[in-house]
């Protein structure tokens, strides 16, 4: 006889099997979801780390900006102190010149007054003597008449009061501001290109006037930024050009490794482009001169004389940049290229023994 399980037991067993199967499916789903969530959590933490690092960079940048502002303010005040000192010295010199002229004019006037006092005394004595003769009796008057008449003769010149004895006010006040400004040209220097410290490699030290670059063995602690050169000891000019003619001279002295020229904005911002194009420069390395249009190997240039100063002449509109030796006015090399974007002056100094310096221009006043 076949025995069948009780219907209630069968349902109970089926429910248990179903529950175990459901729990197993739930566990598998939970594990999969947790793994997926963990992967997303990792990405989330990565982004969190990214934001934390970015915030830290912003905090450091904020502090660096304050340091930059403090340092720049100190230099501004230092430069204005020089101007103030010049103006004070010039004021003192002009007041001193006025006092000296006053002294001379007063002395001349005193001399004249002294002489006039003598003349007045003589005239008074003559007049008094003549008045006595006039008041004398007729016999005495007639006897002394000829002598009295002689005493009325005046041999001295009449006193002269001319404008020449006065202070030359026009000389001291005329075009005073212009005269001071014209004299300031002797202490003012204008440099056609100013270096941008925000682009300088950490090993490059720039002078306070931002016209000279020195290569140092130690790295200066600077705020990291995307503008700064990292692979080459280079720096850019602070102003880019997208039209017109521009010219500047660079003293390289006896530097054993340098490069100067111009660089396009896109090549400067994208180093991958720089490796292929966008840099028009000449350089000197290992005793040889060369020219090139990228940061790769330079093409040799044969020069008879050693370059100590280089003139860069950029003609953006005509699409050419030329290099000259300004000492003997000889042409070195010319690149021809149709420029379509902003171009920046480029400088590289790889010699710690010699600084590169942008030469200031002489200033002159012309009349129209």
UniProtKB/TrEMBL annotation:
InterPro entries: B30.2/SPRY, B30.2/SPRY_sf, Butyrophylin_SPRY, ConA-like_dom_sf, PRY, SPRY_dom, TRIM/RBCC. CDD domains: SPRY_PRY_TRIM35. Pfam families: PRY, SPRY. It comes from the Eukaryota. SUPFAM superfamilies: Concanavalin A-like lectins/glucanases. Residues 173-365 form the B30.2/SPRY domain. This is B30.2/SPRY domain-containing protein.
């Amino acid at each position: 006889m076949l025995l069948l399980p009780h219907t209630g037991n069968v349902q109970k067993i089926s429910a248990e099997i179903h529950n175990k199967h459901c729990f197993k499916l739930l566990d598998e789903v939970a594990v999969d979801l947790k793994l997926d969530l963990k992967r997303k959590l990792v990405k989330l933490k990565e982004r969190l780390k990214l934001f934390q690092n970015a915030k830290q960079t912003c905090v450091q940048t904020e502090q660096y900006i304050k340091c930059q502002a403090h340092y720049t303010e100190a230099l501004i005040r230092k430069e204005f102190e020089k101007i103030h000192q010049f103006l004070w010295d010039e004021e003192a010199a002009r007041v001193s010149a006025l006092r000296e002229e006053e002294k001379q004019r007063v002395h001349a006037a005193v001399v004249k007054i002294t002489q006039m006092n003598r003349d007045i005394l003589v005239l008074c004595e003559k007049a008094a003597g003549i008045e006595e003769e006039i008041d004398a009796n007729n016999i005495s008057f007639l006897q002394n008449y000829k002598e009295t008449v002689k005493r009325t003769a005046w041999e001295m010149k009449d006193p002269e009061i001319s404008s020449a004895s006065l202070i030359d006010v026009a000389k001291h006040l005329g075009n005073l501001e212009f005269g001071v400004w014209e004299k300031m040209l002797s202490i003012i220097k204008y440099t056609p290109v100013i270096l941008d410290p925000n682009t300088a490699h950490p090993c490059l030290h720039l002078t306070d006037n931002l016209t000279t670059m020195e290569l140092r063995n130690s790295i200066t602690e600077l705020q990291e930024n995307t503008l700064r050169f990292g692979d080459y000891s280079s720096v850019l000019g602070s102003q880019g050009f997208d039209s017109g003619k521009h010219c500047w001279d660079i003293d390289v002295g006896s530097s054993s490794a340098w490069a100067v020229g111009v660089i396009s904005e896109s090549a400067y911002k994208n180093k991958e482009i720089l490796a292929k194009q966008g840099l028009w420069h000449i350089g000197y390395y290992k005793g040889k001169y060369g020219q090139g249009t990228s940061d790769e190997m330079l093409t040799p240039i044969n020069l008879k004389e050693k370059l100590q100063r280089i003139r860069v002449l950029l003609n953006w509109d005509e699409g050419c940049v030329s290099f000259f030796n300004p000492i003997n006015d000889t042409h070195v090399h010319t690149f021809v290229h149709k420029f379509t974007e902003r171009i920046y002056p480029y400088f590289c100094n790889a010699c710690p023994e010699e600084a590169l310096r942008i030469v200031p221009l002489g200033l002159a006043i012309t009349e129209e």
